[in-house]
Amino acid sequence: MRTIAVLNQKGGVGKTTTVTNTAAALARMGARVLAIDLDPQAHLTIHLGVEPDSAGPGAYEILTQSADIKDAIRQVRDNLCLIPTNVNLVGAESELVSVVGREVILSEAVETVEDRFDYLFIDCPPSLGLLTLNALAAVKEVLIPLQPHFLALQGFGKLLQTVEIVSRRINPGLKVSGVLLCMYDSRALLPSEVKADIEQFLREARGTRSAWSEARIIPRLIRRNIKLAEAPSYGKTIFEYEPGCNGAEDYAAVAQYLHKQTLTAAGLPADEIEAVIARMGELGLQSDSRFAEAFVRGKAARFGASRLRNELARRGIERELIDEALAGECTESEIERARSVLHGRFREAPTDAREWARQARFLQTRGFAPDLIRKLLKEPYDESA
């Protein structure tokens, strides 16, 4: 089982979003994934559609009451299980203050189920206290989500020092495996400067004995995307809420990157690894048809049919699937746009079949869908005309 703690003592950098959507992507690829919510705010629990105060043991009971971890595991999606939490976890640190070996309670519990899962992700709290120490003692890798701002770098060194201390004193195999840049805006200069600074810092650590000597910036950056912020309020992953958005594409790519690492570490030949990755499909999650439909549904209000067609073609979607996805997407704004384009060329409505066919062909060459042309010209659309 590959074990990863998603950690940053700064809040609002994308820890929970990263755990939820990376775990969901891997699960939909067929991997068996366990996610543990160690943040008393219970954002991971809520994001996956579980009520924090629902009955049953969770992270709090495992840490403070020696509850069996197997009783706390809940299946929330196909191949995806969750150990939930609630606000009671706030008191765990004070309750465990006199307990011997309190830093390794979670580690000992996780060992009993490691043969059941391929991946373990732990959503850590925005602090470096006992809960975080339990997470670091239970995993082999740390993934650091980071917002590419100057202030985000200030705590980066402190975070690495904490991982180093845990690696030396509690968990010798612990290492920082990657940095994931979230809410990345390529239009601004600052994010690229921050990225360059981190890359230089990590390069300088190569060959040293530090816990981050093998760390890399994950090559897929998480673009700023409002859909990622909306999905938790519906208790859905980004792939369920808006599978055609940038956020879904980015986290699917992160999951592919991690899975490729896992297969490489397992000694799978390079050609077999590429074959596995290729079978994941467009997003590693869904058919081209479903992707095209979701993309059109999410972008139809802002993109014209022509741009939608071009964007889908650029992603390698076949023309027939694009036509199917665009069929029926006749929003009022798109009809108004088509009417404006038509009136810019023709002053009057068609009065005979020949003129109707002429105007219909004109709209079709501009990328408008047949259903929309039928609605606008109020005639049966004959593709042979």
Shape: elongated
Number of domains: 3
**N-to-C terminal Cα separation, in Å?**
61 Å
What average pLDDT do the residues reach? 84
How does this structure look, described?
There is one protein chain. It contains 20 helices and eight strands. Mean pLDDT is 84; it is low at 281-287 and 381-385. Strands 3-4-2-5-1-6-7-8 form an eight-stranded mixed sheet, with helices on both faces. The chain is α/β, with parallel strands linked by helices and 385 residues long. The termini are far apart. It folds into three domains: 2-278, Rossmann fold; 288-326, Arc Repressor Mutant, subunit A, CATH 1.10.10; 332-377.
Features:
3 domains; alpha/beta; Rossmann fold; 20 helices; Arc Repressor Mutant, subunit A; 49% helix; disordered C terminus; 385 residues; 8-stranded mixed sheet; single chain
Topology, pairings included?
Elements: E1 2-6, H1 15-28, E2 33-37, H2 43-47, H3 59-64, H4 69-72, E3 74-77, E4 80-83, H5 92-95, H6 105-111, E5 119-123, H7 130-138, E6 141-146, H8 150-154, H9 156-169, E7 175-181, H10 189-204, E8 216-217, H11 226-230, H12 238-241, H13 246-265, H14 270-278, H15 288-299, H16 305-314, H17 319-326, H18 332-345, H19 353-365, H20 370-377
Parallel strand pairs: 1-5, 1-6, 2-4, 2-5, 6-7, 7-8
Antiparallel strand pairs: 3-4
Helix pairs in contact: 1-13, 6-7, 13-14, 15-17, 16-17, 18-20, 19-20
Nutshell version of this structure?
This protein has 385 residues and is of the alpha/beta class. 49% of the residues lie in helices and 10% in strands.
